[in-house]
Design goal:
Blueprint lengths: L1 H23 L24 H14 L5 H5 L24 E2 L2 E2 H10 L4 E3 L2 E8 L6 E4 L2 H4 L3 E4 L3 H6 L7 H9 L4 E4 L1 H7 L15 H14 L6 H11 L11
Antiparallel strand pairs: 1-2, 3-4, 4-5, 6-7
Amino acid sequence: MKLRVRRLSVIGIALVSVLVWLAVNPESYDELFTVIENDGAESGSNESADESSEKAQNESADEGSEKAVDILDKIDVKGRAPKKGYSREEFYDGWPMVDGCSLRQRIIKREFGEKAVLDGCNVVAGEFDEPYTGEHMVFQNKTEVSKIQIDHVVALSDAWQKGAQYLPKETRYLIATDPLNLLAVDGDANKQKSDGDAATWLPKNKKFRCQYIARQISVKYKYGLWVTEAEKEAMSRILTNCPNELAIGV
């Protein structure tokens, strides 16, 4: 009994220490965001796409992640519910602030990494490997950066029709603002995707499709959303090319 109490005390002290550290070092919050590994664009790295993918999978395996294909089998398969009543405001009414910075800017900064040029919280220039097209994009000023769109990997309309409308609004808010479900992408590619699921739209960048599908599966499993039969078939077809692709954050 004494040993159990002692362990709980140690855990409690450790948690308090982490919270204090985050308060004193707010920039450390960036480390809580899932890093996007995009192997589809040439970034000048000496590491091959296969090596990068294997490295990412090994790191995820150390965290206990399951294969995306196995997680997919745990997701319910149903038809679409009616879209009636859907609006973005049913999920959120704008990007929240995180430690004084807009979540939108934090997602862009996450994708740009060390190439981000900052003016306070705002990314005003930089470059990154755009995941949906596979193009290496360079931005010279704030006006150019503003053309980047933040995409919900699982579109909010799709989420609404596959279970989110039956969830508490607090949960829908989490779906809309979870970094797991957010990517900085090319505006035209995002418009082409619209509210499509895997059965109706896939990234032009074929080398990113496995991670894209794994991310969709991860979001849907995390929040108890379902997939349609056609959607599951499309996801399974993509994962046959990468059966060891790991789920993210679940």
